[in-house]
Design a protein that fits this description.
- With 105 residues, the protein is mainly alpha-helical.
- It has one domain.
- Helices cover 66% and strands 11% of the residues.
- Strands 1-2 form a two-stranded antiparallel sheet.
- Helix 1 packs across helix 4 and helix 1 packs across helix 5.
- The radius of gyration is 16 Å and the shape is globular.
- Keywords: Membrane, Transmembrane, Transmembrane helix.
- It comes from Halobacillus seohaensis.
- This is DUF1360 domain-containing protein.
């Protein structure tokens, strides 16, 4: 059983890893392979090319796989705690940033 502090670190690491895959620019080249740009009535949007595109655009879907990966690393991979700590701190920083930036109207 994990303690409260471990649970928080694992949760924030999953949050950050999910956001990294679904939203961040660094994963854009990977996501782009599974989406196509649709232009209709001078509007442009992305449409997924299949099930992988759907999964890569879904926070809930990626979150499950991120949780599986983080828990696997935590249990089975030596020294993965450093990666988990870095991801957790980046997740906390991301949340603080979202709270501190004024919303555009």
């Amino acid at each position: 059983m994990v303690g409260l502090m471990e649970l928080l670190l694992l949760s924030f690491a999953c949050f950050r890893l999910t956001r990294l895959v679904v939203d961040d620019l660094i994963f854009e080249p990977i996501r782009a392979r599974f989406f196509q740009i649709i232009i209709k009535d001078e509007e442009e949007w992305l449409e997924s090319k299949g099930i992988i595109g759907e999964l890569l655009s879904c926070h809930w879907c990626v979150g499950v796989w991120a949780a599986i990966l983080v828990v696997f690393l935590h249990i089975y991979v030596p020294y993965s705690d450093l990666f988990i700590l870095i991801m957790a701190l980046a997740g906390i920083q991301s949340i603080i940033y979202e709270w501190s930036v004024p919303k555009e109207e």
